[in-house]
Amino acid sequence: MSSFFRSEGVSLCHIYVQNEMAFDIVSEFGSLGIVSFVDLNSEQHMFQRRFTNEIFRCDAIDSQLHSIINQLSKNNVPILEESHSEFPSPKYRDLHQLEQCVDSLNVELKTLSKNMGTIRESYIHTMEQYSVMKKMDKLLSSIESAQSLIDVEDHTVEQVQINTLTGLIASDKMMPMERILWRFFGRNIYIKVIELEEPIETIKEIGMDDEDQFVYKKVFTIYYKGDNVENKLRKICDAFNTTIIDMPNSSDRAEMMNRLDQQIIDTRTVLSKSKDYYHKVLRNCSTEIFKWRVQVIKFRSIFIELNKFNYDLAQKCLIGELWCPDGNRPTLSNVLQRFNQINDYLAPTILDIIPKRNVKQTVPTFYRLNKFTNGFQQIVDSYGVADYQEINPAPYTIITFPFLFAIMFGDAGHGLIMALFGLWMVLYERPLAARKIRDEIWQMFFGGRYIILLMGMFSIYTGLMYNDFFSKSLNIFGSSFGPVRPGTNSNGDLWYNNATMELRPDRVYTGTPYPFGIDPVWQLSANRILFLNSYKMKLSVILGVTQMAFGTTLSLLNHIHFRRYINIICEFIPQILFLMNIFGYMNIMIFVKWFKYSYENASEAPSILINLINMFLMKYPTDGPIYLQQWFPGQKTLQIFLLLSALICVPWILFPKVFYLQCFKRNRQYEQFVDENQVDEEGDAAGGGESPSSPSSSTNNHGHNESFGDVLIHQAIHTIEYCLGSISHTASYLRLWALSLAHSELSEVLWSMVLRAGISASGSSHYLNGLIMFFAFSMWAVLSVAVLIVMEGLSAFLHALRLHWVEFQSKFYQGAGIKFDSFSFDTLLMENEIH
């Protein structure tokens, strides 16, 4: 866990490896996930690199695999998945074999699909012919009437040749085609239409659809005279995608129907066997497709990393540059030693570790994380990755983030629901992860399951402290306010005759405070909101100042680690004094007021706000109300001292460091010092801080090469940012009170306007009252989850995020580092949604 508080040491290494061993070594590194390769060919185009052709081969294999996977999916053949950790590291010789297997399978599936499509098309065409034949007997009887319609104007009997054109068309296209035919030919044709009772299967490519599709069709026969008309009729029918069927003579019709019937049986048998064989091939490949996809992803990633290597023509070897955490260096050496022993006939692989003081690049930041700490580290990294070996806010965020969230979400009932939801995801994380749900919202919730669990648990705690359970108070230990003594009011009426009563602590307080949290009697009090607002407002300020002071203290640890001692004197000391002289003093006044003043002398309790205003105005009244006067002897002297000390801290932050850097720069030994010791903050971190008197600032190394004006402007911005930020950030913590108030009031509104209204319903019968209560409870439950838990929870989460990113981390955290991007097969497969 030590590497979690501050990033682990990372070393820059050069590796010299023979071509024959390079692939296997990089493959082993990918399995271990312990190194991050540096691209030494960043200036080269991708097509100029050594292993680009192999990457294209992998892309072609991956494209074929996706085509096969689509066919498996459309035919409802499940892919048998295994744990990819059981697969061995790929070898270069396996690429050609994989390429051949995938290519031959893809060709076979396409050939089968094409052949079945041809057979199916023939089968459907035969079925259409057979269906038309069965309907033709009904149409033949209309020939004479059609001929009489054509000869309407001439009543003389004349020998006219009547031709027919028979076909099949989709039902929804029949009417449009009929209109077109009547527009073109008018009374020169006659159309007879009969609808088929059963739908006919459409012509689709087999293997490419989830299920067969059927369409209702109609048989049509067009009677016409003249040979020139037929060509026009066929063109119009083709435009509507009809199937034209050549009808035989009546004497041959029965024989043709028998032949079509036998052809249908034969074609159906062939098609069924083809489908069975096609699905057998799919089932066989479904056991291998997952392994092949994992392999091609690994192959492609290895070649991408190998493209980052330089090639030495003289030594005929590859030269690579990589980052390796110090804790993994023994593993790295063991891997190379093992490969050298296996390939003893080749030149050995050499690993050259660069001394950290000679490293000029920005060192990446590396933390060893687990599934619990990973979520909180992601919260920090979303704002910015820590500089190398800078203090990591994540360990403190594990506690402070859910706690500040709970301050705003302080309801034990709602926190219980959230905690149970998080606990469910934690206890069933393996089966839930195995389901591989792709929904982004679910993945966000599941990835933050431990955060949700802690937020719920802390909300239960703060809810019990507020004594707020679904907007109601729990009287667990019994109220500290005893029974009201009998008496009369000013009108002489007994107290139990009044709608309200006054609980005076001097009369009804037992003298022992409620053991845990807020006394439940405040739930009935008319001034409940005033009391809770005062309490939560002061609590927000106390927590805010404490967290900012802690963040400023963490900056001291950074200065000590990087040996930036000038920053301790010129930044940390005046910053902590400025913060504590004003806001720390205000927190002390809050505690003094809580401990010194009770119900016995509540009227004498001073106003903290007025006192703080008078402190800045240097007004100390001696007359007037007692709560506006001084608290204690010597208060005036103390506050003037604190105020002047805070004002002195402003030029203290601004000028001394600037003049120190300028004097240091003018020193005649400056050049020599730079050559030997100049290291920027990231270099200090890489070397563990070899420069005890390094003048680098807390933000960047602006003291060496920048002019005096630039340094002064930079430091002025830093000073203004801190001083004004301390004031605005303290006020920003009041969001803890504001959101807590909004949550409690919304919860109270839902209780009184929805649930209580349903419970107190007075219907005409018990059944009606029960029905009303059921719907009222259902509405209350849905609104509580949707509004108070989901929406209010998201709002509190975002505000807690802001408080950590801005108010807390700005005091010590730069967040300008580079994340250690390890070459890991596990990470790559997760990115490709393979678990």
TrEMBL record:
Predominant localisation class: membrane
MF-aspect GO terms: ATPase binding; proton-transporting ATPase activity, rotational mechanism
Membrane spanning stretches: 403-427, 448-466, 539-560, 572-592, 638-660, 771-801
Family: Belongs to the V-ATPase 116 kDa subunit family.
Disordered: annotated span: 681-702
UniProt subcellular location: Membrane
Membrane topology: Multi-pass membrane protein
Signal peptide annotation: none
Name the record gives this protein: V-type proton ATPase subunit a
Keyword check for ATP-binding: no
Function summary: Essential component of the vacuolar proton pump (V-ATPase), a multimeric enzyme that catalyzes the translocation of protons across the membranes. Required for assembly and activity of the V-ATPase.
One GO biological process term: vacuolar acidification
